[in-house]
TrEMBL record:
<dbReference type="GO" id="GO:0070403">
    <property type="term" value="F:NAD+ binding"/>
</dbReference>
<dbReference type="InterPro" id="IPR029045">
    <property type="entry name" value="ClpP/crotonase-like_dom_sf"/>
</dbReference>
<dbReference type="Pfam" id="PF00378">
    <property type="entry name" value="ECH_1"/>
</dbReference>
<feature type="domain" description="3-hydroxyacyl-CoA dehydrogenase NAD binding">
    <location>
        <begin position="304"/>
        <end position="481"/>
    </location>
</feature>
<keyword id="KW-0276">Fatty acid metabolism</keyword>
<feature type="domain" description="3-hydroxyacyl-CoA dehydrogenase C-terminal">
    <location>
        <begin position="607"/>
        <end position="692"/>
    </location>
</feature>
<dbReference type="InterPro" id="IPR018376">
    <property type="entry name" value="Enoyl-CoA_hyd/isom_CS"/>
</dbReference>
<dbReference type="InterPro" id="IPR006176">
    <property type="entry name" value="3-OHacyl-CoA_DH_NAD-bd"/>
</dbReference>
<dbReference type="Pfam" id="PF02737">
    <property type="entry name" value="3HCDH_N"/>
</dbReference>
<dbReference type="InterPro" id="IPR036291">
    <property type="entry name" value="NAD(P)-bd_dom_sf"/>
</dbReference>
<keyword id="KW-0443">Lipid metabolism</keyword>
<protein>
    <submittedName>
        <fullName>3-hydroxyacyl-CoA dehydrogenase</fullName>
    </submittedName>
</protein>
<comment type="pathway">
    <text>Lipid metabolism; fatty acid beta-oxidation.</text>
</comment>
<dbReference type="GO" id="GO:0004300">
    <property type="term" value="F:enoyl-CoA hydratase activity"/>
</dbReference>
<keyword id="KW-0560">Oxidoreductase</keyword>
<keyword id="KW-0576">Peroxisome</keyword>
<dbReference type="GO" id="GO:0016853">
    <property type="term" value="F:isomerase activity"/>
</dbReference>
Length: 697
């Protein structure tokens, strides 16, 4: 029998059954630890303490999870009591057993609450982790002190610096929970009953001397793990702060460790990096929202998919669908091309298996979802057809007209073009309303970004379907309008506006790349061009009637980058390490001599400005033209598709930190010096800079 027990605030309820209280966090949608929820927990604990009939507490979350952590919307406001570390201390100090029953997300402060309990039970669905690092933070409510005591400092530092959650089974293996059960609350009750029966007073992690000793014994493993996880930090502050905090758990007593953790957390929360990452978190959610659709629009159903073209893109796209459970028909024109494509898919999955990330059975299951076909007529049964053929308007239009003839009447025709006019492609069919762009990024089975291109006539149910399918693939779909290159590649082109001038004026490709790496990008523009293939941008330039003297010259010599062993750099056979090539420098020198330019050493800061400001300017034009719905969408595209350092928040957010007036002045000076229209500050940038405003509004 369950009897209501509580008059505490609605966000926390306390009920009691046979001596065991059920404390439920109930703050929809994700039980974020708002001030009200924190106060509710304290009140419920006091109430339970005062009730002699209560012998133990089981803590659970209402709805779809345990607790998603601190309320991110409260960051940046003055902290209000009760503070989360104190709430968790109160849970831990509760004199009777407290057991956390975890289903769904237990993230950040949510996991820290569970670590305050005396025992934890998880459902298989549990998603337990400390993702604070992704918000530019360290866990700020004891996670860096209690988790190392629970699972050892090496495992703790890996979990904390990756920010990635683990499921119930993995949590059991790590020792975060002692049991995995479908009915977590029942299992937690049973455990609580055992703890009561044992008669042993519960011991919190903060005062468990044996665990601390065991953790200290793991110091060497911790230092090795810490060095490993810091390798990918690239300018982000939070990973090193996480490592330092975990190290404190070994070096300091609990109180001192907590004090240091809190101080580091508060300093990070007020800093630019965390603000940028919080912006990215909310921008990613906002990007899913599509303006201007009828309220009653629903997505056209997609159950089966056909992919045309089994090249690198088509194969990756087929894998992305197969991974998400869709049956895929993969269509090629020749048996050789199909066999090659399927062979690549097989190899790709095999390497995932070899790295221990997939079982043989899963591999077989996914491959079985992909059926190869040589006849375009096989599209007849597909709800969604994605073409990934050669990037040429004529080829795409002919194919689309064929698909229009052969596809079912309700089929969606998607093009994976990366810069062509989707309106023109749609006009080649009798159903332009069913045509949408789905611009995947290579490798398509891995990259998170999906640009969903809304053409003039794309119907709402088709647009919604493309976005919904994107989400089911685990991607971040961002809706963009039609223009050459859409949002991502158009800004990429702007990033390259000044590249050749930098070489002519005296920078080497390696210096430019190093400056961009220093800004936080994993790869510099020249290394990226060489990797992607110089012929690709050459073709795109030719289509636009544009030239780039150095790159064009390299292409004319058959220097297409890594694949030909030479591009802006040269490569030893079979190697990927870029090596300086004197021919490129000689070419730059010759142009400088011809133009009367005195070459000089160019500081990294200037290089970064000359790459970044044109990107921001192009972003402003994209906003003026309504190609992107909001500045945050541009940021999301650049963070997830192009490696923009997330801790800088994307180009449009970063612009706010630099100052729009400074960017305008930099562009204006470059415009006057070069006479090139692409550097002219966009009207929106001019206006916002004059008003002292920012893109965010
Ligand atoms: N605070 C405030 N709002 C949050 C939130 C949080 N911690 N987590 C999610 N939300 C909001 C979302 O913004 C969204 O709002 P909207 O409907 O208005 O757009 C709504 O809750 C639902 O979220 P999702 O759409 O993301 O729902 P999903 O079911 O897809 O995902 C989730 C749920 C896995 C919990 C995901 O939202 C998530 O990862 N949240 C962030 C978790 C996190 O980073 N926690 C750490 C916070 S920092 C911390 O705890 C500090 C501590 O150490 C002191």
């Amino acid at each position: 029998m369950t009897e209501p027990h509580s008059a505490s605030p609605d966000v926390v309820t306390l009920t009691q059954e046979n001596g065991i209280a059920l404390l439920t966090l109930n703050n929809p949608p994700v039980n974020a630890l708002s001030t009200a929820l924190r106060a509710g927990i304290v009140a419920a604990l006091a109430e339970a303490a005062a009730d002699p009939a209560i012998e133990a507490i089981v803590m659970t979350g209402a709805g779809r999870g345990f607790c998603a952590g601190a309320d991110i919307t409260e960051f940046g406001k003055p902290p209000r009591e009760p503070f989360l570390p104190d709430v968790i201390a109160a849970i831990e100090a509760f004199p009777k057993p407290v057991v956390a029953a975890i289903h769904g997300p237990a993230l950040g402060g949510g996991l820290e609450v569970a670590l305050g309990a005396h025992a934890r039970v998880a459902a298989p669905s549990a998603k337990m982790g400390l993702p604070e690092v992704k918000l530019g933070l360290i866990p700020g409510a004891g996670g860096t002190q209690r988790l190392p005591r629970l699972i050892g400092p090496a495992a703790a530092v890996k979990l904390i610096v990756s920010g990635e959650p683990v499921g119930g089974a993995e949590a059991l293996k790590l020792g975060i929970v002692t049991e995995v059960a479908e009915d977590v609350v029942a299992a937690a009750r049973a455990l609580a009953r055992q703890m009561i029966a044992s008669g042993v007073a519960p011991v919190g992690l903060s005062s468990d001397a044996a665990r601390l000793e065991a953790a200290r014994a793991g110091r060497d493993a911790f230092e090795a793990a810490a060095a490993e996880v810091l390798k990918g930090a690239r300018g982000a502050e939070a990973p090193a702060a996480c490592v330092a905090a975990v190290r404190n758990s070994l070096d300091l007593d609990f109180e001192a460790g907590m004090k240091a953790e809190r101080a580091a957390f508060l300093s990070l929360v007020a800093g630019d990096q965390s603000k940028a990452l919080r912006h990215a978190f909310f921008a990613e959610k906002a990007a899913a929202k599509i303006d201007g659709l009828p309220a009653d629009a629903v997505a056209r159903p997609v159950r089966s998919v056909a992919v045309i073209g089994a090249g690198t893109m088509g194969g990756g796209i087929a894998m992305a669908f197969a991974n998400a459970g869709y049956p895929v028909t993969l269509i090629e024109t020749s048996a050789e091309a199909l066999a090659r494509g399927q062979g690549n898919i097989d190899k790709n999955y095999a390497s995932t298996v070899a790295r221990g990330r997939m079982s043989e059975a899963e591999k077989a299951e996914r491959i079985a979802r992909i059926t190869g076909w040589l006849d375009l007529g096989a599209v007849a049964s597909a709800d969604l057809i994605v073409e990934a053929v050669f990037e040429d308007m004529g080829v795409k239009k002919t194919l689309m007209a064929d698909l229009d003839r052969l596809a079912g009447p309700d089929a969606i025709l998607a093009t994976n073009t990366s810069y062509l006019d989707v309106n023109e492609i749609a006009a080649a069919t009798s159903r332009p309303e069913a045509v949408v762009g789905m611009h995947f990024f290579s490798p398509a089975n891995i990259m998170k970004l999906l640009e969903v291109v809304r053409a003039e006539k794309t119907a709402p149910d088709v647009l919604l379907a493309a976005v919904e399918v994107g989400r089911k693939l685990g991607k971040i779909p961002v809706v963009v309008g039609v223009c050459n290159g859409f949002v991502g590649n158009r800004i990429l082109r702007a990033q390259r506006n000044d590249l050749e001038a930098l070489l002519v004026e005296g920078a080497s490709p390696a210096e430019v790349d190093a400056a961009w790496n220093g800004f936080g990008f994993p790869m510099g523009p020249f290394a990226m061009l060489d990797l992607a293939g110089l012929d690709i941008s050459w073709r795109a330039r030719k289509a636009l009637g544009q030239t780039a003297e150095i790159a064009d010259h390299l292409c004319e010599q058959g220097r297409f980058g890594q694949k030909t062993g030479r591009g802006f750099y040269r490569y030893e056979p079979g190697e990927r390490k870029p090596l300086a090539d004197s021919e490129v420098e000689d070419l730059a020198k010759a142009i400088a001599a011809r133009e009367g330019i005195t070459r000089r050493s160019i500081p990294a800061a200037e290089i970064v400005e000359r790459l970044l400001y044109p990107m921001i300017n192009e972003g402003a034009r994209i906003l003026e033209e309504g190609i992107a719905q909001r500045p945050g969408d541009i940021d999301v595209i650049w963070i997830f598709g192009y490696g923009f350092p997330a801790w800088r928040g994307g180009p449009m957010h970063a612009a706010g930190n630099i100052g729009l007036a400074r960017i305008r002045d930099g562009l204006q000076a470059r415009f006057e010096q070069s006479g090139r229209a692409e550097f002219k500050p966009a009207a929106l940038l001019e206006r916002l800079a004059a008003d002292g405003g920012s893109f965010a509004g």
